[in-house]
């Protein structure tokens, strides 16, 4: 299974992976039945989660809704520490993730729109460095693991800030290399193998470092750091298989 997933992630284009995901989930989930881990999004329990990533890291991917650690962290925050599921919000979800898409679309309190550069499941298609939408439009923008792919993450952040209403919020998570004090980027590196070697993935243009919240502030956001260790027990963190190093940044205008 690890070799199969590693091959898919490394060699199959993302739009095709998205189309294949439902069928893959249906056949795989039955082999992972158990009660050791639990996904807070789909509320299913398993003996463990699936491996995932270019290195097929163990116990990460929910076999049913296909959530990863970051999705489960975000969902727990929105469910337990915000009014996302009850207040009337206008939401833009850039690069919509499988665990959230259908659930958020069904929420009657949300005016929910999705966007992406190429994804077949998105409502709108555009470059997030040049968003063709009006200023002060959205209460929430969700855009996860995208800014490491674009030529200028700061310009993309500024565009997201522009389309947020005053008081609006954005979740803009990225992969962070905890060994780096400062973000490392080099746009002159274009070879996919070299990018994978230096930035961890063939289509990444940078490794964000521990200075990531400062980059968000540079773009104009007010940044609140949400640390799951302050709200869940170690047993709950293990049950949901969360990454204890990941800080959720709630960025407001």
Topology, element by element:
Elements: H1 2-11, H2 14-28, E1 33-38, E2 45-46, E3 50-52, E4 57-61, H3 69-80, E5 89-94, H4 98-106, E6 110-116, E7 124-125, E8 138-143, H5 153-163, E9 164-171, E10 184-185, H6 192-199, E11 206-207, H7 212-218, E12 222-226, H8 234-240, E13 248-252
Parallel strand pairs: 5-6, 5-8, 6-7, 8-9
Antiparallel strand pairs: 1-2, 3-4, 9-13, 10-11, 12-13
Largest sheet: 7 strands, mixed
Counted by DSSP, the helix tally is 8
Order of strands across the main sheet: 7-6-5-8-9-13-12
Distance from N terminus to C terminus (CA atoms, Å) equals: 43 Å
Number of domains: 2
Structure summary:
The protein has 253 residues and is an alpha/beta fold. It has helices at residues 2-11, 14-28, 69-80, 98-106, 153-163, 192-199, 212-218, 234-240, and strands at 33-38, 45-46, 50-52, 57-61, 89-94, 110-116, 124-125, 138-143, 164-171, 184-185, 206-207, 222-226, 248-252. The chain contains eight helices and 13 strands.
Q: How is this structure best described in words?
A:
This protein is of the alpha/beta class. The chain has 2 domains: 2-67, no CATH class; 70-252, Vaccinia Virus protein VP39 (Rossmann fold). Helix content is 31%, strand content 23%. The protein has 8 helices and 13 strands. The chain has helices spanning 2-11, 14-28, 69-80, 98-106, 153-163, 192-199, 212-218, 234-240; strands at 33-38, 45-46, 50-52, 57-61, 89-94, 110-116, 124-125, 138-143, 164-171, 184-185, 206-207, 222-226, 248-252. A 7-stranded mixed beta sheet has the order 7-6-5-8-9-13-12, sandwiched between helices. A hairpin with a 4-residue loop joins β3 and β4 (57-61). It is globular, with a radius of gyration of 18 Å.
């Amino acid at each position: 299974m690890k070799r199969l997933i590693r091959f898919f992630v490394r060699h199959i284009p993302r739009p095709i992976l998205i189309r294949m995901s439902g069928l893959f989930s249906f056949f795989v989930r039955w082999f992972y039945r158990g009660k050791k881990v639990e996904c807070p999004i789909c509320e299913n329990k398993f003996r463990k989660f699936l491996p995932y990533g270019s290195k097929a890291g163990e116990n990460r991917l929910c076999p049913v809704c296909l959530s990863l650690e970051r999705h489960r962290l975000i969902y727990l925050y929105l469910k337990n520490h915000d009014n996302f599921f009850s207040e009337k919000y206008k939401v833009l979800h850039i690069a919509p993730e499988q665990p959230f898409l259908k659930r958020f679309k069904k929420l009657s309190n949300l005016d929910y729109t999705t966007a992406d550069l190429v994804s077949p499941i998105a409502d709108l298609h555009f470059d997030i460095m040049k968003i063709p939408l009006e200023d002060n439009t959205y209460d929430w923008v969700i855009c996860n693991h995208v800014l490491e792919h674009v030529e200028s993450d700061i310009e993309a952040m500024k565009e997201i800030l522009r389309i947020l209403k005053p008081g609006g919020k954005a979740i803009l998570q990225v992969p962070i290399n905890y060994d780096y004090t400062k973000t490392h980027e080099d746009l002159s590196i274009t070879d996919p193998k070299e990018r994978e070697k230096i930035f961890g993935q063939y289509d990444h243009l940078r490794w964000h470092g521990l200075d990531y919240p400062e980059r968000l502030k540079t773009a104009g956001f007010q940044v609140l750091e949400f640390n799951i260790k302050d709200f869940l027990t170690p047993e709950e963190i293990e049950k949901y298989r969360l990454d204890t190093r990941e800080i959720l940044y709630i960025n407001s205008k």
